[in-house]
Write a structure and sequence with these properties.
The chain is α/β, with parallel strands linked by helices and 254 residues long. The protein contains 11 helices and 10 strands. α7 packs parallel to α8.
Length: 254
């Protein structure tokens, strides 16, 4: 039985732009929606996206799927997105901007695409951004839209440390896997402090699986740390998603 404190979630970068150890093409609209439908059928209730995942494409596709749910079903789902990384349509590339105006515009656009946001994270977090008055002001604005769960998505240890020290943050996203275990102590500290954690890259963007590491031991490496939250899988394939779901169930059994 899957423990109540950790669930499997679906990261949606791949339905917005090429991603992974071996980047795959972005799926067509109907295939992306079918992936979301299949994830819901499996029992996945946490969906992680961002406006920089293909100029809002990932958010738009998730928003389209969410409209197909009943109100009861939508209440079961956690929609997590980010602000801080934006899309430059001229260069077709993402860029970071943690200024208040950029953050506010990004959040407003995400709300329009998604219809509602349950968890908001600061994308491309740096220690400097976490100390910024503009970011603090943007968090305040987010609360006026009804968002009350927020925190950084960190890829450096100093940002993660600062997040753990900030009583205003209730969520934290970090990468963690057996190939890159440096964030494992952060998982333990977050668990002790009651901060909810989203773990990304459990298979190192697929590199570990490509090199022959089993999915079950990859999940178990993360699950041996005591925390509350979600482990994100980033596949765009329903078949691979089923494999990951089954591996996650096996890793959490017994």
């Amino acid at each position: 039985m899957i423990p109540a404190n950790v669930q499997l979630g679906l990261g949606l970068i791949g339905i917005g732009k090429p991603w992974g150890h071996v980047p795959k093409p972005v799926p067509e609209e109907r295939d992306a929606v079918r992936l979301l439908e299949f994830a819901f059928e499996l029992g996945i209730r946490y969906f992680d996206t961002a406006p920089s995942y293909g100029d809002g494409l990932s958010e738009r596709r998730l928003g389209f799927f969410l409209k197909s749910l009943t109100s009861v079903q939508r209440n079961e789902v956690t929609v997590a997105t980010k602000f801080g990384e934006h899309w430059d349509a001229r260069t077709n590339e993402p860029y970071a901007d943690h200024g208040y105006d950029a953050l506010k515009r990004s959040l407003d656009a995400s709300l329009a695409r998604l219809g509602g946001i349950d968890t908001l994270q600061l994308h491309k977090t740096t220690p400097q951004a976490l100390a910024s008055g503009d970011v603090a002001k943007a968090w305040d604005y987010a609360t006026t839209t009804g968002i009350h769960r927020f925190g950084p998505s960190a890829s450096d240890l100093e940002s993660a440390r600062l997040a753990l020290e900030n009583p205003h943050y209730s969520v934290l996203q970090i990468p963690c896997n057996a190939a890159n275990p440096k964030f494992a102590p952060v998982l333990d500290a977050a668990g002790e402090q009651g901060i909810w954690v989203a773990v990304n890259r459990p298979f190192a963007m697929g590199a570990m699986v490509h090199e022959g590491t089993g999915k079950v031991p990859a999940f178990r490496f993360i699950l041996r740390h005591r925390f509350t939250g979600v482990i994100l899988t980033g596949t765009t394939s329903p078949a691979h998603l089923r494999e990951n779901w089954q591996a996650f169930r096996e890793a959490t059994a017994g």
